[in-house]
Amino acid sequence: IMLRELDTVELKSGEQMQIIRITTPEPGWLERLEGFLQHKGESWMEPLRFALAKGIAPAELRFFVGLIGDELVGNIMTTVCVGGQVGTLGHVFTPERHRRKGICTALMRTATEDFQQGGGRAISLGTGYDSPPYWIYYSFGFRAIQDTGKMIWRVEEDFDARWFAPGPTEIRETTWDDWAPLEQLYCIEDGWVYRGVFMGQIGFGGYELGYWTWHKAIQSGQVAQHKLLAKPDSAVVGQAYLWSDSRFGGRQSQPFVLDLFAHPNFYDSLGQLLESFDLDGIGKVQAYADAGADEQITALRAAGFDIEATLKGQIEYQGQLSDIVILVR
């Protein structure tokens, strides 16, 4: 069911608001939602347009919209993946003239109940730390990662331990169903500091917009090879991809960079993940690692990489400077 009426609530203003869930694909709502959310900017609108027009099966985008009569007065969107187990929440918006009526709270209640009733285990979002929206999300069970606006609602208190528990894995290419699982992977606090050159990932963070950026790079051919290390039907526990680095001009062929990140519970599978790549005959391939990522450096050296250079104090994370090691094959 792409369109489903979920509830009618009375707002603080006394007005009646109808709440409808729109599940992608639903091209009939594309123009209206695009106009309502256009302030979000082009980089955010691209994946919404794509999902509404074509869908992102087996994952879904769900828009929870509030209507007063025929007027669209509020929106919250969730991305649900892996049969609804994990997701992201975003694009929360109420026009200025309709704020302080309780619209956001009503839509949040509906969206979080929908996620939980669908078997949801953890859902994340990004907002301004200690901002008014932060405390609305806090009231619905979302908790910040350290003192930041990256928040996760763990429906299961022991979600992280169970989701990333050691177990059998497979190596495969990506599907849309990996959108939220990659978000969960890059939100972990443990592990290597430097997590990817292509995305500029330093320390924990999200992958909400990153997945669309990565998807486009795969479609354009900039990402030449990509592999995920995943537990069957659940967590993505590692990611590696080979991309053409155009930052350095004047070469007949661009060097490639191999970005690699994995959950600490699965470091013993790094060699298997690297072996899934065909690196012969493609020219220079570089990999970057923070100097403390011993397991990553060891796995890369076992795969035929040698240390080419060390950049002293190259990145700063949580007040500490870290060296970056460049390896080459």
Q: How is this structure best described in words?
A:
The chain has 9 helices and 17 strands. The termini are far apart. The protein has helices spanning 30-37, 42-54, 103-117, 132-139, 159-163, 179-186, 208-220, 270-275, 294-302, and strands at 3-10, 16-23, 60-68, 71-81, 86-93, 122-126, 143-144, 150-154, 170-172, 194-196, 201-202, 223-230, 236-244, 256-262, 285-290, 306-317, 320-328. The strands form 3 sheets. The protein has an 8-stranded mixed beta sheet with strand order 1-2-3-4-5-6-8-7, sandwiched between helices. A hairpin with a 4-residue loop joins strand 4 (71-81) and strand 5. The mean pLDDT is 95. It is an alpha+beta fold and 329 residues long. Helices cover 26% and strands 35% of the residues.
Overall pLDDT level: 95
Low-confidence spans: pLDDT under 50, at least 5 residues? none
Question: How many whole angstroms does the radius of gyration measure?
Answer: 21 Å
Strand segment tally: 17
Binned strand content: 25-35%
* Helix content class: 25-40%
How do the SSEs run, as a string of H and E? EEHHEEEHEHEEHEHEEHEEEHEHEE
**Count, helices:** 9
**Major beta sheet, strand line-up:** 1-2-3-4-5-6-8-7
Major β-sheet, in short?
8 strands, mixed
